[in-house]
Design goal:
mainly alpha; Arc Repressor Mutant, subunit A; WH-like_DNA-bd_sf
Amino acid sequence: MAIPGWLWPDDRSSTGSTQGPRKSLGASEIEHATSVFSVLSSPIRLQILVTLHERSVPVSYTELRESASVDDKGKFNYHLRRLDHLVCVQDGEYMLTDRGGEFIQEALYNGLILDNE
């Protein structure tokens, strides 16, 4: 199974072209993919990403925390910081980065985070 393009640092793909042999993963690429999967292992972080995707407009901190149903601000801030490459803040409102948008779109499209049983 190929690693999706949104996991590659700096929006690179594993091959660089559609022809020729696939490039083997180096230690830095494996470390990056591992850190992305680690970040996404939390239901709170997934809820934050899904909320931002569904709203499709910037969301205030309060709205985002309420949507994740996390009362503890420290706990919520911890999870929000872990999403620093997938979520950004502008003028006090949160939105998905390009990589975050690509990830959540791919995950929803491929049924990676939906229970389809």
